[in-house]
Amino acid sequence: MPSSCHPTHLLVEETYVRDAKLRQVVSGLAKCCSPEDLTSRVVLITNVKPGKLRDVMSEGLMSNMSVSTIPVICYYNGQIVRTKTDVEYEGSETCIAPLKIPIECTFQQLIDMIYSKTTIDKRRFKLVLICKYPLRNGNRFQPFPVRDDSSVHEMLDLVNTTTIEEIELYIKVVRVKAQLNQSVSGHEDLFVPDHYNVAQSVYGCGASTGAEPDTGPDGDDDDSANEEGNDQDVNDECAGDDDDVDVDGNASSFRTFNQVLENEQGIYVSAQAPSCDVSNHLDDDTLDEASPGNYYLPPTPQFEHVENMENAVASCWTPWVQHSTGCSSGEFVIGQVFNSKSDLQEAAKIYSITAHQEYVVVASSKKLLVLRCKKAEECHCPWKLRAMVVKDTSLFVINKYTGPHSCVNPCLNRDHHQLDSKLVASHIKALIKAQFTLSTAAIQASVMEKWGYQISYKKALDGKHKAIRQLFGDFFQSYTELPRLFLAIEQSNPRGIVIWKTLEINMPNTEILQRVFWSFKPSIEGFHHCRPVISIDGTHLYGKYKGKLLIAMGCDGNNQLFPLAFAITEGENTDSWGWFLACIRNTVTQRMGICVISDRHPGIMAVMSDPHLGWAAPSAYHRICMRHFASNFMTRFKDNILKNLVCRAALASTERKFNKHMNTIGRINPEALQWLEAVPLQLWALSHDGGRRYGLMTTNISEVFNSVLKGARSLPVTALVLLTFFRLNGYFVARRELGANRLASDERFTPYVDAQIQSRVVKAGSMEIVLYDHVKDLFHVKSRRGRTHRLNLHEKNCTCGKTLIYGFPCSHMIAACQHRCVDFRLFVEGYYTTQSYYDTWASLFHPIFNEDEWPLYGGPTIVPLDSLQRTGSGRPRSTRLHNEMDVREGKTLITCGL
To answer: Residue by residue, what is the 3-state secondary structure of 264-322?
Structure first.
């Protein structure tokens, strides 16, 4: 075709052209017109199938004959989901914006077009662009970052070089001044676009060029000088030590304990975590809810059904996994951005641990982090990493990187220097939230399973303490925040009781907390429908500050514990117990004839016997826990046979049985009998109780709740108070629902009493009944075993004593009622009815407001007592007085010998 004859349209069609002529055909078409003329003409490319012709076209010979615009589909308001073979964009509110991008479009022009099409606020948000990039080996796709003009042209050229007809562009929206201070288990690899202003600096400039790495001593000391926490002054602008401040912060115990800001901390979401919801919503309300100052949820899984922290991790894509873009070796890449310096440090630590290599800190400040291989001088290893802060944000970007390591370890160490207590704390935070009582040995085992290193006991314990501080706040600060927490609880749950006892000191507007008592309104109201019995007990606090937690528990009609009141005191003594019981009597319950079950603590015994404190008979009746009483006996006489006889005597329902066991004890050991008789029988013997304790022989209901609080007793006081609030709410919700269901099913009594009565009805069917007086309803009942009992239906009395003791009819009385056609359910006390059970748990707890809505506290600053602070390091020494109750009966002691 002559060059002077330029056609109006060029038709390119793949025909049966031999391989040798393909390039000639393409070249000839290109020579028909000059590039300037081709630009102004309409070029039709039809029926161009994948083949050698398109391969030739992809070399640029037909670049001037391509279409002038490329279709691009932009996705936003969702999340990128990455798998091993694909990249997708998902989200319930995902939107698309179709664009026609000119071939010569620049990166800035593309950004402006997206802002215009999506109506995203340019002043508030920056865009991170990720293209779905096809790979040649099979139907596989990977994320391709679009951050400059070159990457835009490479993205647009995909239409010419691949089989795709339109390009998928995924948009990540980031606030201009994001304060990403939350550390997460995964580290996102963001790529900074050109419109981010990254602080520029020459590698090793300033004072850092002469800084010598401080390798520090080897061993388990987490505070070694080469850790990131010991920042060096790089220059006047970068000087400062920010690593001593935990990036996570000492999390306020008022906030949620799973603060992971999904909306601002995730560019990739694991496809294996379907419950992870980290969608980006661009409306102001959603962004405000994601703010760390306003986000509030129940604090922990132990605080009733809070989601697992593992499902809230924003990303599982990390630079050391074979998933990184642009580098298949799993190394860091230049341009990677981390949410904060701590995220970068954690990523570097895990990279080093996984690679079984160690590094030292060359320079570290608020704006710079420089790392190099520990064996750089010895083995000439080139590994080095340098990262700087993104201006006006907390993001850190890698701007220099040399890797991987070329050094080789002569042997594998048992521990790793980068596996410090900070990393251990980050690893076990979710475990601590799920189980407060997580042991140090379990932490060591978990670290061994994850990374293959055996850390020391001290490092594991330090990691646990740091995790607790990050989750629940500082111990000292929690005392200062405690008054405002109680105000917040009172704000949403009024008419609760909080009583303070403080000590004045010389410091102005500051007082020392000696004791604090609290009881929630639902507990106070619900106790009116419980049996008039409370169990009291004290337990130790094992946090930074010593003290005692005093607990009062009731018992509902279903024989379940009913939390009534709590107090934190300086210890267990006559004054503290008197104060605690006075608070209960004056503010919680004034019921007469209430029974108090406790151990034989001298302080409790003194208070209960004082007629001026409101707990002496007939206002109240004191009873002793049988287990503690038997333990005291065992400590004195050390005889298991006698101890078992004492338990049988205490549990005997009739005086005849009681006297039988006491006589046996007297024949074996007269001194033991004298010791038992010296204690008033009504305090410990059920047969002499008079029905005051309703068959409750121990303080187990208090000790069971103590076990619920076992892990929380190592937490700050604010977390402990919150735990009591959320745990009680869980009890009320579950048991209120049970009561409502039984009412709807027309069940008259609680499950506990139903089961007891059913078993007694079966026994009553085999008994012989003889009526003696039909007016007074006097009966003589003979059981299947030949035992006889006398009963009086009018007086609700049976010589077996069980009706009086438990408050519902015994089998003998049921047999007599059936004989007289009397409804035996009339003899069941009202505490056991379904209506009373429902009323016990009917009161509602209400959610605590967000922290910014809490009322202000204008009182004095509350601080802990200095003498209660634990001075020793390591695990707190147990102050529990261990006795034979802590040893399983029947367990053989292990002795050495042949």
So the answer is: CCCCEEECCCCCCCCCCCCCHHHHHHCCCCCCCCCCCHHHCCCCCHHHHCCCCCCCCCC
Q: Which of 678, 622, 677, 668 is nearest to 644 (CA)?
A: 668
How far is residue 183's CA from residue 347's CA, in Å, rounded to a whole number? 11
* Residues near 448 by beta carbon (within 8 Å), at least 6 away in sequence: 454, 455
Ordered strands of the 95-102 beta sheet: 95-102, 69-76, 167-175, 125-134, 141-146
- Report the alpha-carbon distance of residue 245 to residue 474 in Å, rounded: 13
CB neighbour list of residue 470: distance below 8 Å, 6 or more residues apart? 246, 248, 249, 250, 251, 425, 429
- Separation of first and last alpha carbons in the chain: 109
Helices (H), 412-532: 421-434, 440-451, 457-472, 475-492, 521-526
pLDDT over threshold 70, residue 232: no
Q: Residue 79 — very low, low, confident or very high, per pLDDT cuts 50/70/90?
A: confident
- Here the tokens at position 281 are 């919503």
Please state, in angstroms and rounded to a whole number, the distance separating the CA atoms of residues 491 and 479: 19
Q: How far apart are CA 139 and CA 86, in angstroms?
A: 8
| Residue-wise pLDDT tens digits, 374-404 | 988 888 899 999 999 998 898 999 999 998 8
**Residue entry with tokens 């300086």:** 570
Instruction: Find all residues with CB under 8 Å of 429, minimum gap 6, and list them.
Output: 309, 467, 470, 471
Angle between helices 341-355 and 421-434 (to 10 degrees): 100
| Secondary element (H or E) of residue 410 | none
pLDDT in tens, 130-188: 998 888 765 788 888 898 888 898 888 888 888 888 899 999 888 775 333 333 333 44
Amino acid 364 reads S
Kindly report, residue by residue over 466-499, the tens digit of the pLDDT: 888 888 888 899 999 999 999 999 999 999 999 9
Provide the pLDDT for residue 411.
64
Query: Measured on CA atoms in the order 9, 12, 15, 17, is the torsion positive or negative?
Result: positive
Contacts for 506 with CB less than 8 Å, ≥ 6 apart: none
Tokens of 835: 């209506």
pLDDT at 877: 56
For the CA atoms of 398, 404, 407, 409, the dihedral, rounded to the nearest 10 degrees, stands at 90
Say whether 549 sits in a helix, a strand or coil: strand
Distances (CA, A) of 729 to 125, 163, 452, 850: 41, 59, 41, 18
- 633, 643 in Cβ contact below 8 A? yes
- SS3 for 514-538 is EEEEEECHHHHHHHHHCCCEEEEEE
Give pLDDT tens digits for 665-710.
999 999 999 999 999 999 999 999 999 999 999 988 777 776 667 6
Radius of gyration of the chain (CA): 38
**Is a pLDDT exceeding 80 seen at residue 352?**
yes
Distance (Å, rounded) from C-alpha 234 to C-alpha 615? 69
Q: Which residue has tokens 């602080």?
A: 199
Tell me: the pLDDT tens digits for 739-768?
999 999 999 999 999 999 999 999 998 899
Write the secondary structure of 103-155 as one string of H (helix), E (strand) and C (coil): CCCCHHHHHHHHHHHHCCCCCCEEEEEEEEEECCCCCCEEEEEECCHHHHHHH
Tokens of 831: 């505490």
